[in-house]
Amino acid sequence: MWVSSTVRPLTGLAGLWTATRSLSSRTASKKIGILGVPFEKGQRNQGVSGGPRAIREAGLAHALRALGHDVEDFGDVSYDHIPDLVGPENMDKYQHVVACMHQVSTLARRIHAEGRVCLALGGDHSVTIGTVDATVNAHEDVAVIWVDAHADLNTPATSPSGSAHGMPVALLAKDLSDYWPYLPGMDWQVPKLPLSNLAYIGLRSVDEFERLTMEKFNVCAFGMQDVESLGITGTVELALRHVDPHKRRAIHLSFDIDALDSLEAPSTGCPVRGGLTLREAIHIMEKVHETGRLAAVDLVEVNPNLGSARDVQTTVQAALQVLLAAFGHSRLGNMPRSAEIPLTKGATLKRDA
């Protein structure tokens, strides 16, 4: 902790320099690969495919580079759907889901192979079928933090809507592989994620069968009532302790913008009141960043077609702030990249090596 009541307040420029030095160590340069997934067939609201463009246009890559990161934008995923593919009943747009997620996984694996953190911009939350698949194949042992109002733990047999964006966790979970029928065209995707390696934060809209599954498999889940009781720091620390008790697993952080209260992020397809504040969401990302083991981030469900221009701006800016926090942006200010800082004419302050 940076500030303690037992520590005498620091005064003067030298004191400020000493105090902020420890914070600069958290912003070590990373290699980041941005992948746009403008996919909206996993749900029924048009416009969520515009999420990647809106977040990019808000200045994501420039802001990440300003933090000192090596950023490469791999562009948007494109695919050709498979019209004659017959999937299970009650899984809408199956031909599109299979084709797109295969491409997502392929490109995300390439990003991991280059030693980059994969930053995926959705699109709806079904895109994680591909992104998480890539992470668990690139790293031997993966922990997943799922920040969302919803559990996304349905199968076609339990889903009220048939929308794929409510199914990715169930599809990725090794424990639930026997609950699925054979999925034509999905042989590339083998469920490898143990539910014991998963923790939810922010839940407040969970379907009955999802709740039953969570109870049966003892899934780590922090709803908003838990956040209120434990505080956001306690919640994140417990979630990380559960999924990564030995502090060695690669972490995949999947963030659905509807985890935020709808006043904070109104332009999304399934808003639920009573969610996280932006400040709480930023804190989650900061704590995960501090582990030094972040391997992949998803930011999904920003829909520029929903709400007023002000609503869209509010939502996109929230998404941007959440993402920057995941990569080391400090609310107390980041250290300059230069080794020397000009103070007055002819005088500089040198940064310690």
Automatic annotation (TrEMBL):
Note on cofactor: Binds 2 manganese ions per subunit.
Residues that bind Mn(2+): 125, 148, 150, 152, 256, 258
UniProt pathway annotation: Nitrogen metabolism; urea cycle; L-ornithine and urea from L-arginine: step 1/1
InterPro entries, A to Z: Arginase, Ureohydrolase, Ureohydrolase_dom_sf
Cofactor list: Mn(2+)
Metal-binding as UniProt keyword: yes
Enzyme Commission number(s) from the entry: 3.5.3.1
Record keywords: Arginine metabolism, Hydrolase, Manganese, Metal-binding, Urea cycle
Annotated GO CC locations: cytosol; nucleus
Pfam families to which the protein is assigned, alphabetical: Arginase
Class of enzymatic activity (EC top level): hydrolase
Catalytic activity: L-arginine + H2O = urea + L-ornithine
MF (Gene Ontology): arginase activity; manganese ion binding
One Gene Ontology term from the biological process aspect of the record: arginine metabolic process
Entry similarity comment: Belongs to the arginase family.
Protein name according to UniProt: Arginase
Organism per entry: Thrips palmi (Melon thrips)
Source species taxonomy: Eukaryota, Metazoa, Ecdysozoa, Arthropoda, Hexapoda
